[in-house]
């Protein structure tokens, strides 16, 4: 297909990541004939209705928006979309499994942007999973969709390095920046990419070796000192801004304190050599075992330590440990248990 041929695109996406792929299509010679996104949410203290960024982009361009309160797998929902005239459907982090009747309907079928080393990291949270696992690489993939979750043939795959202190936000940004132009290139030459698509399993990876990431829940961000400190640091980098890394408030029932800034420390000798400190002679896992003017150190598994420098109390703005100590001197004091 030459670049002069414009495709009529139905776009399905919900996450902010999705919007970064809708925008380049809108700015290309291809025509977005409709956008499918999850229903608006009520959020914040003012209970304001919040549109997805995908919907905001569509509304700004007067593009029809389709939102369904139940799954798209229900015939009454997807049949409404089958009435539309489109050549291809592009799906990016939509948040629901689509019916094969819709996937196979358009002339060039449906394609999906998926950021993982497929067949590893299928499912709902591949980017967060990459950070939480401490992986050193991931991939930007565009696949032809089929009846099962993230199993389709690969149209495009490019490996991406993951930095040592990468966060989900920085990795999403990296993938978005590189992925937009790639998506347009694939759409411009869609028949070529479909003809040359490759199965995900050229080496016949056994089913147990494939990984499926789950939808992130609030409890995914619960601090667990029975794991190593590096695991907790990775959780913080993976799950910020939501659900973050948090622990139970020592003085307020059913409330949590968020850890905003923290890093793993494997050896406290360097900390002691460069700071005034107070230390607990022997501390159980989960205990604040050392403190300096700027940080507290919680003992974790295998004699590792999480250095916490900034936290957020319920209903408050983030605060550094020094300021917290001035206002709440006993809240996170030496010897306190954190879990």
Write a concise keyword list for the protein shown above.
2 domains, 18 strands, alpha/beta, 7-stranded mixed beta sheet, elongated, Rossmann fold, 26% helix, 7-stranded antiparallel beta sheet, 339 residues
Describe the structure.
Belongs to the Fmt family. GO terms for molecular function: methionyl-tRNA formyltransferase activity. Residues 215-328 form the Formyl transferase C-terminal domain. Pfam families: Formyl_trans_C, Formyl_trans_N. It is an enzyme of class 2 (transferase). The chain is an alpha/beta fold and 339 residues long. The protein folds into two domains: 8-212, Rossmann fold (3-Layer(aba) Sandwich); 218-337, Methionyl-tRNA Fmet Formyltransferase, Chain A, domain 2, CATH 3.10.25. Helix content is 26%, strand content 26%. The protein has ten helices and 18 strands. It has helices at residues 16-26, 53-60, 75-81, 100-103, 126-133, 168-188, 190-195, 229-239, 269-274, 321-327, and strands at residues 8-13, 31-36, 41-43, 48-50, 65-66, 88-92, 110-114, 122-123, 137-144, 154-161, 212-213, 245-248, 256-265, 277-279, 288-292, 296-300, 304-312, 319-320. The strands form four sheets. The chain has a seven-stranded mixed sheet. Helix 1 (16-26) packs parallel to helix 6. 36% of the residues are buried. The model has no long low-confidence stretch (mean pLDDT 94).
Give the SSE layout.
Elements: E1 8-13, H1 16-26, E2 31-36, E3 41-43, E4 48-50, H2 53-60, E5 65-66, H3 75-81, E6 88-92, H4 100-103, E7 110-114, E8 122-123, H5 126-133, E9 137-144, E10 154-161, H6 168-188, H7 190-195, E11 212-213, H8 229-239, E12 245-248, E13 256-265, H9 269-274, E14 277-279, E15 288-292, E16 296-300, E17 304-312, E18 319-320, H10 321-327
Parallel strand pairs: 1-2, 1-6, 2-5, 6-7, 8-11
Antiparallel strand pairs: 3-4, 7-9, 9-10, 12-13, 13-17, 14-15, 15-16, 16-17, 17-18
Helix pairs in contact: 1-6, 5-8
């Amino acid at each position: 297909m030459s670049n002069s041929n414009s495709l009529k695109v139905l776009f399905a996406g919900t996450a902010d990541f999705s919007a970064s792929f809708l925008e380049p299509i809108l700015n290309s010679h291809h025509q977005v004939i409709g956008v499918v996104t999850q229903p608006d949410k009520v959020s914040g203290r003012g209970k304001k209705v919040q549109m997805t960024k995908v919907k905001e982009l569509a509304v700004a361009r007067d593009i029809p928006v389709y939102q369904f309160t139940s799954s798209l797998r229900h015939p009454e929902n997807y049949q409404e979309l089958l009435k539309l005239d489109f050549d291809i459907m592009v799906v990016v982090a939509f948040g629901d499994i689509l019916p094969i009747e819709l996937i196979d309907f358009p002339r060039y079928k449906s394609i999906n942007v998926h950021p993982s080393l497929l067949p590893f990291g299928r499912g709902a949270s591949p980017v967060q999973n990459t950070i939480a696992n401490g992986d050193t690489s991931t991939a930007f993939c565009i696949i032809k969709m089929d009846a099962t979750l993230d199993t389709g043939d690969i149209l495009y795959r490019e490996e991406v390095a993951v930095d040592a202190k990468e966060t989900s936000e920085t990795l999403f940004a990296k993938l978005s920046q590189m992925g937009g132009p790639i998506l347009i290139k694939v759409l411009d030459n869609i028949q070529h990419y479909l003809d040359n698509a490759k199965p995900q399993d050229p080496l016949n990876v056994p089913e147990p070796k494939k990984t499926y990431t789950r939808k992130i829940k609030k409890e995914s961000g619960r601090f667990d000192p029975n794991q190593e400190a590096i695991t907790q640091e990775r959780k913080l980098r993976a799950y910020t801004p939501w659900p973050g890394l948090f622990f139970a408030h020592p003085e307020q029932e059913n409330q949590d304190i968020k850890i905003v800034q923290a890093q793993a420390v494997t050896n406290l000798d360097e900390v002691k050599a460069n700071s005034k400190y107070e230390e607990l002679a022997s501390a159980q896992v989960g205990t604040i075992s050392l403190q300096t003017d700027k940080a507290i150190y919680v003992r974790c598994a295998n004699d590792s330590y999480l250095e916490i420098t900034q936290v957020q109390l319920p209903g408050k703005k983030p605060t550094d440990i020094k300021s917290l100590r001035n206002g709440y001197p006993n809240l996170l004091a030496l010897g306190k248990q954190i879990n």
